[in-house]
Amino acid sequence: MEEIVRKHIVFYGRVQGVGFRYRSHYAAEQFGLTGWVRNRYDGTVEMEIQGKRMCIDALLCALEQNDYVQIDDMDTRMLAVEAEERSFRILD
């Protein structure tokens, strides 16, 4: 069984005002991932995503393949898994 991991990711580029959070939510549900996503005041988008590493990679590929989203860079760090988390949310 593949290990469950949790990542904190900050996305840079054209990531606000293009449906990025809603696409993230849809893809997270599609791939069985949990966590959250929110816009930041500096124009970036912040996400914590948890699940199988392969599924997180698939979510990132799905986001990058969108015509309206342009991810120029990502800052990623590993976090401790939150065992009680059961869903993916869009935060305000």
From TrEMBL:
Residues annotated as catalytic: 21, 39
Organism listed in the record: Roseburia zhanii
Family of the protein in this entry: Belongs to the acylphosphatase family.
Domain annotation Acylphosphatase-like: ranges: 6-92
Key words of the record: Hydrolase
Protein name, as recorded: acylphosphatase
GO molecular function term, any single one: acylphosphatase activity
UniProt xrefs under PROSITE patterns: ACYLPHOSPHATASE_2, ACYLPHOSPHATASE_3
